[in-house]
Amino acid sequence: MSNIVLEAVGVDKHFAGVHALRGVDFTLRAGQVHALVGENGAGKSTLIKVLTGVHQPDGGQLRLFGDAVSFGSPAQAQQAGISTVYQEVNLVPQLSVAQNLFLGREPRNRLRLLDFAALYRQAGQLLGELGIPIDPRRPLTSYGLGVQQMVAVARSVGAEAKVVIMDEPSSSLEPREVETLFEVIRKLHERDVAVVYVSHRMEELYRICDSVTVLRDGQVVHSGQMAEIGRLELVATMLGRELTNVRTVFSGEHDSRSGTALRAVGLRRRTVLDGVDLDVAPGEVLGLAGLLGSGRTETLKALVGLQPLDSGEIQVDSTTVRTGSVSSAIRAGLVLVPEDRKAEGIIPHLSVRENIVLAALPRLSVAGIVSKRRQRELVDTFMRRLRIKAASQEQRVSELSGGNQQKVMLARWLAMSPKVLLLDEPTRGIDVGAKAEVQALVDELADQGLGIVLVSSDLEEVVEGADRVVVLREGASVAELTGDQVSVDSVLAVIAHEA
Amino acid sequence: MIAGIVRRHGALAVLAVLLVVGGLSFSTFLTPYNLSNLAVQATFLAVVALGMTLVIVSGGIDLSVGSTFALAGVLAAYGSRWGLLVALLLPLAVSALIGLVQGALIARWRMAPFIVTLCGLLFARGLLQLLTKEGSTTYLVPQDSALRWLGQGAVLVVLAVLGYLAGGVLLQRTGFGMRLFAVGGNEDAASLMGLPVARTKVSVYVLSGLLAGLAGVMSTAQLGSGVTVVGVGLELNAIAAVVIGGTMLTGGAGAVSGTLAGVALLAVIQELINQVGRFNSSMQAVVSGAVLIVVVVLQTLLSRARR
Amino acid sequence: MRLDRLNLRDHGVYLALVLLVLVNLVITPNFLTADNIRTQLVQMVPVLVVALGMALVIGTEGIDLSVGSVMAIAAALLPLYLGYGALPAIGICLVAGAAAGLLSGSLVTFAGVQPIVATLALLVGGRGLALVIADGQLKQIRNQQLLDLGSGSVLGVPLTVFVAAVLVVLVALLVGKTTFGRQLVAVGGNRKAAEFAGLPVRRVLLVVYLLSGLLAAGAGVLATARLTASDPSSVGLLVELSAITAVVVGGTPLTGGRVRVIGTVAGALLMQLIAATLIKHDVPASVTQMLEAVIIASAVLLQREGTGLRLRRQEAR
């Protein structure tokens, strides 16, 4: 077995009352591609931040090549040869690709000034070695997210790295780009660089990783060779559940009623949407499937007026809704629970009550004066109906768990008595138990006659939750699957069918 | 493409038009005497705006420069009785110290730059009043002081030009310059890349303080005394010049050459208003404000269109 | 421990106020006389009125640097229209203030300019405009109604103080009890989420800047009435700083999402008393100014400390 490069021994980390890491041991060997997995909140990010010097451990020790080290900052960790590729691209968009690659270690000439010729030459060389065919002189912004992520990878590799930590690097990449990424990882492996690979995508883990460490509730619950643990077993270890409970709780069967709750025809917007048609019956759950960037989120945003349209018609209950206007959509009963709960959903330092009544405020007020009593009644109803767990109505929403925050978002919109509910990734970033609750709620709401459109990057969730699935590709609806056709395999087949 | 060109060279184009219009309208406008006079008067703003450019590229703002400018001027006059070295070092040291404290508060304690530097504005102004016994004392530069030699128009202009050359090299051709762009463009990324973000920010406020101080010394050298009432609102003109010159207030982009064009543009506007004569001199502020609004709106709209 | 921090951040201003009053009772002769109290209140009125508008703007995560210049514009306009009577003249000043607010508000909402820049442009141009309007002149006010507003009193309460008190109540009700107030706080807390929730974000922002301009113009009128002269070159100079201080010292964070109206009143009062105390004990104005700078910085630091800890708690989740 090859040398141990980096080692964490008994690492502890607290955050104001939360025990994020409890005695974590982690061993990384040269040339290893090591999967680090766990549910959200298991402590993966915290461990990574400790390894890369963003956080300092409260207890335990880090060892680099056997010597105890402590990193006071990311800079120190990088100097020691540990570099990181983050989930979100962390580069400077205005600077050129080459400048981004060499920021902080730019080639200098004899006068100690930047040597741009050498900069571009070295950048071109590095990109060439890794098989990334882009022009190092152009500003980073002129390339898409996927390419930017590859630049981030190239930057980390260029730093004479001994350890490269990749935190969900593939989440914004197209399949072709993922192949390039894997190619790079193989080259790192050949150079005896150790790689820590964090991902939720099982398939990727089994393709590229040779060993795995599983975190749960801040503790290591499994560590070993990738080949020695099966896929289902791995998932069960992550979740800490029996295998049978891993599935979703969706019933996927609703008695959709006759009529149309929502009909959208020919939604078009230059470079974003290219002809989306869909309709939803009352009491029906329609799944929207497609790859990242296929226009799923944009379609939902367009439906509620957050994404301007060049053309297209939207009808709720056979009444045409003015496009591009959020208030018209809401008035018509068309509401969206957005994808990014933190950035687009909750108002963090307002209370649960204020977050729930936010959209309904005008309805709860007379001549612009809001009635606190009516607010309380409304909030009380929904907290009970959706089983929102909070200390009181006045608790700050940011103190709730992700699942309860999601329910607050649902309550906000249900308070508007909508006809059609659009859900963008409703179970992202919430724990397994809450996931099941949210899924059950969606079923319940459909049974009560709401039309629902469900978007999720988890294909299984879409397939099991929806009665019908519309597949999007490059901003257009390309297929509709009903009845028995609704299965992971058939949806995948449609998505993968590239013209 | 067009957006970039307008942003980078818009100030220069407007400047050219104004020079032509001014030259055709007023016979005394495009004379060598008038132009060199204009250049000398613009040097102070130019030097202050140079520091402001660096600060704004790093994503910050420095409102204290007007006060620092005045304080340094008084300190230079005060120190000139002990010779040139004291007259230079005393004000520059104090200005750098003001920048250092501000930079530390901003970088280490993560306070909003505009609040910190507003406090700096108040503090430096108060210190200035204290030194001059609430404005009742004026320090004169001795007739035989070498400081007065520094105050010749040609020397001032040369100093400013050297400053801009050095500033251009610093921003475009050094690692420090790249760090400024990186910090201003995406601070989180810069710190995750292991760049010394805090040190970079502190340095840029020290530089800004130093340059404001230098401008104050230059002003005292020219006037022969430390005038307490100068520099009020100078920070606003400096910001206006920087923004008009195409540096984005959101940080991460900009160039010192644009700032120089912005300074020249402001100076020419003022001169034209003087030449017209009918207008109240306050008209200059109105025009500067209007130009600033137009430029900022254009910048915002153009950068949005690009996205 | 958490309770202590909350107390210091949210109620520190009241604590400081009580302490300062107690200290003054001991060291300052004639402190608790009706006369002195009146003087202190009258002097703080313009800053307080401006600060009310500033609190609203800061609540939306914005800033309004133009308030001093708007005060100057109002002061410059006032004597020009006194011929039509005091009320019409005041009305014109208020309309001008609202228009100025609307301009910065439009720049912020429609053009997407950062608040600090939009209002900075108005700060530069506004005072120039005021001086152009007034031709750089100081003008005596001879309109009796206006002079009464400036120096008259009802039941021993100066009229300007009375006006300010009414405005405080109105703004407090606006923030606490109305749809608009709640929407304002939501926009400041998370603008994108407010947009997604279908709130009229642009209208809220526009109205907030309009109100700030309106209140600043009102402050300009009050200050002019009290001075018995229109002085556009110096009225409201640096008032933006005092107003921001009052707001921040009063517990409204610069990061938006919260507005503390009563805290702002306490903040304004605290800063007024500090200055008065220092002047009364012959501390030079220069030192007073330097101390003010230190106090503002400390107040902001205290606010930031709170948010810093909160952020970290969220991160741990």
TrEMBL record, chain A:
GO terms for cellular component: plasma membrane. One of its GO terms (molecular function) is ATP binding. It is found in: Cell membrane. Keywords: ATP-binding, Cell membrane, Membrane, Nucleotide-binding, Repeat, Translocase, Transport. Its main location: membrane. SMART domains: AAA (SM00382). Residues 6-242, 256-499 form the ABC transporter domain. The keyword Manganese does not apply. InterPro entries: AAA+_ATPase, ABC_carbohydrate_import_ATPase, ABC_transporter-like_ATP-bd, ABC_transporter-like_CS, P-loop_NTPase. It is a peripheral membrane protein. This is ABC transporter domain-containing protein. It comes from Kutzneria albida DSM 43870.
UniProtKB/TrEMBL annotation, chain B:
GO terms for molecular function: transmembrane transporter activity. It is found in: Cell membrane. InterPro entries: ABC_transp_permease (IPR001851). Pfam families: BPD_transp_2 (PF02653). It is a multi-pass membrane protein. GO terms for cellular component: plasma membrane. The chain crosses the membrane at residues 12-30, 42-75, 82-105, 149-171, 202-224, 236-269, 281-302. The keyword Cell membrane applies. Keywords: Cell membrane, Membrane, Transmembrane, Transmembrane helix. This is Uncharacterized protein. It comes from Kutzneria albida DSM 43870.
TrEMBL record, chain C:
The chain crosses the membrane at residues 12-34, 40-58, 154-175, 204-223, 235-254, 261-279, 285-302. InterPro entries: ABC_transp_permease (IPR001851). Keywords: Cell membrane, Membrane, Transmembrane, Transmembrane helix. This is ATPase. One of its GO terms (cellular component) is plasma membrane. Pfam families: BPD_transp_2. Its main location: membrane. The keyword Cell membrane applies. CDD domains: TM_PBP1_transp_AraH_like. It is found in: Cell membrane. It comes from the Bacteria. It comes from Kutzneria albida DSM 43870. One of its GO terms (molecular function) is transmembrane transporter activity. It is a multi-pass membrane protein.
